Amino acid sequence: MSHTVHRSTRSLTKHRVGLASLTLGLLVLSFVAPSSASAAPTQPFPDYGSTTNPALKSGLNGDIAGSAFVDNDGEFHWISSYSLYTKPTDPSTTDSVTKTYTNSDLGTVSSGLGTTTTLNTANTHMNEPGSLCYKVDQKPVNPAPSLYQDDHCDVIGIWVDPATGTWYGAVNDEFQFNPWATGNPTPNERVGSGIHYNRILMASSSDKGKTWDYQGAIVTSPYQHNGVADSTAFPANTWSYGIAGVRLFIDHASGYFYLLYNEQIMTKPGYTAFGKWFSMARAPISGKMAPGTWNKYSKGKWTEPGLGGQDGMIGSSLDLDASYNAAQDLVSYQGSGADGSALYFSNYKVPSTGIFEFATPQGTKYQANSVAGTLTDASGQAVSQVEFNDPAIGATVLVQPTADKKINITVTNNSGDSRSQLVSAGKSIYQNAASKRLYVQEFRIEESIISYNAYSQRYRAVSYNGYVYETADLGKPNSWVPVGKQPAGTTNAYLSGIDNGSLSNQNVSGRTYRTLSALTRTVSTISQTPHSASQPSYSVGRLPLDSTGNAINPASSYQLSLGSNQLVIGTGSNKWKIVPVKDESNAAYNSGFYRLQNVSTGQYLQIGASGAAAARAQGAQASLGAALAEFSAAGNGGNGTPGGSDQWYLQPVTANTPSTLTASSSPSTQAAASVTGISGVKQYRLVNRNSGMSLQLQGGKFVLAGQNFGNAGQILAISLAP
Fold this sequence. Notes:
With 722 residues, this protein is mostly beta strands. The protein has a 5-stranded antiparallel β-sheet, with no helix packed on it. It has a 5-stranded antiparallel β-sheet with strand order 15-16-17-26-27, with no helix packed on it. 55% of the residues are buried.
């Protein structure tokens, strides 16, 4: 995927470097097919199909990923943010706001916009009186430095506290605009440049998004000085703009919040990229996102503090970490190779002549000329291309000239991921200085949508690079493997997702899933294509396990218990069949969701309330009834109509103890906090597909309740009925 700067028609200079749309000066990454002189390796995973849905209505779009969630009262909300840098302090502009839209689901939000959809507008943008980040350096709670009073905040990712109904949101904060400007520009001139520093804050709202209260910074870059970008922190020619591209995933399986974000190193004074990697932070859900509860993942552990801790590199098929030395303008990647060898790669600037040397693992040397577009061997003989396998990086490396007389380096790893670097004079490559071995960084889960996939019982990431990845353990962020590739045109900027069958649950996905680009308003339904015999890497449909570890049989009868309480509704017995709901795109497959049919009555477990919101609300009572309507792709003018409240999924529950760790935490404490893998888990919550809420017994009735990691009354036991 090539990287170019998106320019919105509503903004003259919109530069959000958290985008995959960044023009890269160091790594111009584009998935360039090898020339006909070299046969491309067979892609070991399938290409997915897609259906284009009606675009999101104008107004629902934004310049950061949109967020969907269900409130405790069952109302569905879509939250988006859009800002104009050209009028940063003009209180009359309606574009510099966060907007919260409310309707029964995303299909009605989009089709009913302007008629049935209600809208709350929060003044969260720029440092205007009453805004979320107004004089953030003077806030009574956790003040943050703000040299120019120019904080530009977006709420992205919402968790609703089941106990209080308070909304908690991760906040992307762009601040300290144009830090390397000369001539003392005005705040408006600074903001107009679009160049900024970045960090992640958190905020809460007790009035359903009308106003937000700043609660403090939660994740910040380690490369800073007193929280800002200045010449003390960055004395040479490069600088870190902080961390951005944030996505929030609420992992109800392990009891953690996860933040995915990127760290980018730039060349002064602007946004020409010098290095880039992706990182993750997590915090126990019980801590309600508070500052000080977050840990970063680095060097295989979750012990770095969220505030200023080292940002490890994630999403690599290797065991590598990234580091940055600002004084030396040095970005390096180091760790263990696929063959267990020690690896170290750092940036090397190609001179103005365009000539650089590289070598195979066996030490055979070649010279590339990225001005003339030529390759020569050690004897000076011209060669058309060089291709070799490097066992240390577990990949095939292809170096070849391009038609415009540059040099392209394509690396294809053993998992089938390809990435390329186009080299020209004055740009940098990564190599080992001593051995001259080459490296092109992987971006495996670049600014991804992450969800729990009920079909595969794995976590699924849809990345900006167009690939789809899965893992069984978010606590091991380098364990992602590719299982598919999205069709062209479906992976757009500011990407988020939503469950296709409910159009309300952003935390879960099925075999068929839906993506949304807030920037382009593109909505796509992605259908998982069956793999071929030559494709060993694919998404595997899995059935939940009963208490003995056997996969459930839809033809068998089971007794179900929530905590110590048998699941008995009305006149029904505690004998149930767990009936798969068919995939929305291909009925030959299961979707990953289920109906629970009572054996004695033949009826199905559902929520008996009238109306979409009432059937999703906390306290809504379970009942038995006839099977409800299926999802309709044609509903709401092609935006879709969800299925009924009788569809459920089994949310795995791990055995870990969610904790905030430090470097001094004992090995036993770290181990207890890290039992986060969901493969083979035999305990679940019974979660309603539309609401994302769990069933539990309250006051003698089975009702919906917010998922609570420590609530034993929500744990589902599945046993074969006698």
